[in-house]
Amino acid sequence: MNTTDFLSIAHAICPERDCMVFGGKRRTYARTNDRINRLANGLSELGVGKGDRVGIIHVNCSQYIESYYAVTKLGAILVPLNFRAKAGELSYMIANAEAKVLLMGNRYIDLISTILPQLPTVKQLISIEGRNEGMLYYEDIIDSSSSGECICEIDDEDITILMYTAGTTGRPKGVPLRHSAFVVYVLENVEPASPEIEEKNLLTVPLYHVAGIQAVLAAVYGGRTLVLMSQFEVKEWMETVQREQATRAMLVPTMLKRIIDDPDFTRYDLTSLQVITYGAAPMPFEVIKKAIDLMPWVKFINAFGQTETASTITMLGPDDHIIKGTKEEREKKLKRLTSSIGRPLPDVEVQIIDEDGNSLPPLGVGEIVAKGSRIITDYWGNEGKSLHLLTSDGWLHTGDIGWMDEEGYIYLVGRGDDMIIRGGENISPEEVEDVLYSYSKIEEAAVIGVPDPEWGQQPRAIVVLKKGEDGTAEEIMEYCRSRLAGFKRPASVIFIDSLPRNPMGKALKRELREQYGQP
Q: How confident is the model over 29-48, as pLDDT tens digits?
């Protein structure tokens, strides 16, 4: 089975059910499948075939999901691009993927135009929102193309999507995800479409995130209605839940905090919600505790995973969020709710290992490693990256430090690779440091994560100025403004005389965090 089968199954079982709701428009599974076929045939006429890469840069929209399925029906590979990325980041990702076609929203046209000379593999530009000079228009392709089913041999192990994730090297890493990686997860965790059961998923997680794609595929296989928001906004989210009677939602901790802290929270009827899944960043205990108190009818799920694992590998389920029982049982559940990411899913092995790669017994603190059929075997076009991340026998080094209790629950302690996670977005310190080092007044720089009650973490720059130079925090943050995506820019700057380093010259981030890592 491949991911196109999810759509075929839902289309056959509930063709007249709404598949997507977005921007005031509702489209059934039948209508959505028709548009997807037309787009696929149109892309085929443009020369897109099996194995070709098609990039897309836009906020969440129904066309995004149509594009995924149209590209996939051709055996091609969709490349979702972070819409917050700057020119240098985008040109690297598109060139690395060797994308043949780019689809884009209007707000990204000028940006793509500036980097187009650096993208020799791109043969065609497609505008999603309207007609623009020098490119095709998405709706014109659909209107002029056949609605016949595309026939393409798709193997379960074929790559369906190429996602880029920040890494410790400072460059985004291409993560090729196969049909089988998503199919294994979905078949194990989602009930197939039923003509009797109707559910509505409210999706605000960006579709360039693996969590967003996982949510789409799960919803389609389940015959659910996908209610899309282009981007998260608190009151619009609550209004949409109330209007559409959404039954499921996925949120990052920052989103959930904003919802429950909103002064108008009690004005909205959110009782249709049955399940809220959260993840992508550490969840502050006070946030989830307050959410449980305010929405006792909701089943909460903490999902932990990485792009390299096709998302979820461990889960803290609804029962783990119900704090009741004896005093000992309540204390145990409160501890899990504070720092546990749950237990591994059935198709994944998880171990805690020491620095020598030896498996540790319960309560031993070490790196979390995972193994399973969903985990990638290599990075796209840059195999050397795999050496420190994937072992010869398939274990993925997550870079997270944790421990496991006697019942198999895993607890996070911290990041082993200095990665900063802000609102669910991975930030590579070295990428930010590269920009800081390019500033003429800076002699040395290091970037660390600082706890933040709203975003989970914020990047902080530790800077050593060159002799004779003067500088301010505002000046340095302004310098980063045009060179980094907004979420990557340092939120604060501290000036020191010199960076602590080991004998090999490596900056000692642990010392910096101990001294300067508090809000």
A: 999 999 999 999 999 999 99
The three-point CA angle 359-364-367 to 5° equals 60
DSSP 151-162: -----TTSEEEE
Other Cβ atoms less than 10 A from the Cβ of 220: the count is 29
Q: List phi, psi (to 5°) of 466.
A: -65, 150
Three-state secondary-structure class, residue 97: helix
Give backbone dihedrals phi and psi of 36, rounded to 5 degrees, phi first.
Answer: -65, -45
- The Cα 168–Cα 170 span in angstroms is 5
Asked, for residue 194, whether it belongs to a domain, the answer is no
Range of the domain at 450: 420-516
Domain harbouring 426, CATH code: 3.30.300.30
Q: How many other C-beta atoms lie within 10 A of the C-beta of residue 496?
A: 15
Read off the CATH number of the domain in which 45 is found.
Answer: 3.40.50.980
**How much is the pTM?**
0.82
Neighbouring CB atoms inside 10 A of 471's CB total 17
Alpha carbons 245 and 223: distance in angstroms, whole number: 16
Taking only the tens place, the pLDDT of each residue in 396-435 is 988 888 899 999 999 887 667 677 889 988 787 878 887 8
- Both 57 and 148 in one domain: the answer is yes
Answer yes or no: do 435 and 380 share one domain.
no
**Rounded distance, CA 196 to CA 219, Å?**
15
399 and 435 in a common domain: no
CA distance 327 to 216: 40
